[in-house]
Amino acid sequence: MNHSRTTTxxxxxxxxxxxxxxxxxxxxxxVKGYGIVAGRTHQGTALAxxxxxxxxxxxxxxxxxxxxxxxxxxxxxxxxxxxxxDRVASFPLFIxxxxxxxxxxxxxxDTPLSQALDTDTAGEMALxxxxxxxxxxxxxxxxxAVGELCHVRGPGQVDFHRWHQYRPWRVRPxxxxxxxxxxxxxxxxxxxxxxxxxxxxxxxxVPLSAGLDSRLIVSGLHAAGVKDVHCFAYGQPGNYEAIxxxxxxxxxxxxxxxxxxxxxxxxxxxxxxxxxEYIAFADSLSATPFEQDFLAIRDxxxxxxxPADCVMxxxxxxxxxTGGHVPPSLAAPLPDLSAAERFDxxxxxxxxxxxxxxxxxxxxxxMALIKARLLAHLNDIGLPEVPAEAPHGAYEVSEYENRQxxxxxxxxxxxxxFGIDWRLPLWEKPLIDFYEGVPASLKVGQxxxxxxxxxxxxxxxxxxxxxxxxxxxxGWLRGPRxxxxxxxxxxxxxxxxxxxxxxxxxxxxxxxxxxxxxxxxVLGDRRGYRNAFSWVGERYLAxxxxxxxxxxxxxxxxxx
Length: 560
What we know:
Strands 1, 2, 3, 4, 5, 6, 10 and 11 form an 8-stranded antiparallel beta sheet that branches. The protein is an alpha+beta fold and 560 residues long. It has helices at 44-56, 60-66, 119-128, 177-198, 212-223, 240-252, 263-270, 273-282, 294-302, 318-324, 339-353, 364-380, 392-408, 413-417, 429-436, 440-443, 447-456, 478-488, 493-508, 519-523, 532-542, 555-559, and strands spanning 2-8, 11-20, 28-37, 40-43, 68-77, 80-85, 94-96, 101-102, 141-143, 148-154, 157-162, 204-207, 229-235, 255-260, 311-313, 421-423.
């Protein structure tokens, strides 16, 4: 097996590719990640061998439709190339205008980004942190869509095929609440049995919080009989997520540790040369790299706390898939609205949820551009109109293909950067296929999901466990914050929320995501930032010579 590696700045980083020697058929095959076939997990040369067989038999698309797991692949012979990504593009691939394919976007083009900047995509990313569809910041670089296969027949001769499409508007009419509960329980049971078997003999590490999804991971592993599990939490000391994490781990008998975040430690981490290398490694030119657990993974790696040959398993993205993001405005059929009115409602919900990192950047021209691109994206994937009977489906597929696949799922890059193997069980085929047909009534508020988890009560960490209350951190802020709230009381709740975010948001952020900034810069800002990720996105764009609006930076715009 040839598992290639590269070294940068003293940090050894696995490229993730495993290739097998060229066979008599002439095909050179390389894969990343893992695949699951009939409940059995395959990695490395085993997975590459399965891919080669499918390519040789000219059955690659059919093979992919049965393959579960998270992977990308590339097969090449005499200039002909097949390449594909999984159902959520967890390992992204990019293709240039001449047919070059790579997991690094700037390796498929000879034109510098500065000479081929897509300003429309840059504007989108300034407001949301991610692009729409297959667009990247570079006009000559296309990102493979989720569940997409491309065939390069020669220079400039490329065919694209979507071998998987998530269609949450195809609601199953026969799926009663009782039947849904039974099916979901069966799926979860099998999911964790397969996970346990696929990781047999290897220690498992879980970033554990107070949320439902990571708790499901550890309790599901416990129910499957897995004993070698190591849990950790991170953030400001005393945060309720970490308290819950320790309590849950102790109930299950799993090892636990905590990585403290302080302003000085987080500032040093986010401004380090190693962090710069991580951003370059994770950069897809289509979303701001996910970096909130960089410090935690760096520390655990340096301390030797992570067991050798461990598998990292987090709870991404159970909250989305199980309905936690479905807006009430789209939860019921909209037969009395026109197609245009239904799309307006979907667009309003997407803007409210995602496209408002900077209020001052929400110009009429940019919002009209984003609206047109979102509509075009839905049309491109075969949804020319928002379904009257399942309007939530249009919202969900837009988030699936854009935010989830480009920003949330690529949080796995930090594990890749530090050479850690991982699994994403809540983004695997059984759950995706099941939730595609679940009606909105069972998704809103994660109703079905919550009910099933409490009924299963794996490990006794559901029915008999109460999450600790949230507290204001750091503790010394509680007095000043209370006084400020009393002072704002006569001016209404909105005034207080503005003051709280502007004055206290920086030190109260549990993960201290803004630590790389001077506090006074945030305090004095008047552009209307939404949260810490507004600033993280601004810094990412600045790394590509762009200002906070996604426009080429000038001295004036850089200094605001």
